[in-house]
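The records we work with from here on pair a chain with its fold. Here is one such record, which you should read through line by line:
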Amino acid sequence: METSTRMPVLQNPRHEAFARARARGVTLDAAYEMAGFAPGNGHASRLASRPKVAERIGELIVAGEQAAGADSRTVIAALLRLDEAAPTVANPVAIQEARLALQDVCNLLNELEEVRGIERNRIIRERKKAALRQEIARNRQDPPETARFA
């Protein structure tokens, strides 16, 4: 029987949340706080350097890079191929593992889309703020003429 080389989810849910945030590119301190730890105590780098946490972050980064090239049609097509191949495969566990791996890819794609959406919204907000600041600066330079009363 073929064994999977995938690392399982970290047993500590906060460590797993930290690893997932780091894999998405969140800074050490922000990921630490997002995972539910107290901010500002400098323990984020210590957690990131724990072997299992570091390995999990690396695994999630690689999985995200691999998933970035895929889209929902690719995942659906792969699931359909698995469904077609299932009756001919002697080892149902292998099919189950492959299906679970594809579901992980699908979940990563959804997370990636969510992060892209959040980033897109942040960029839009920043552009609107910059445009508003420019307009305010222009108005300060060219104040409207007011009637003078003598």
User: Anything to note?
Assistant: Residues 13-113 form one domain. The mean pLDDT is 78. The CA atoms of residues 36 and 107 lie 22 Å apart. The radius of gyration is 24 Å.
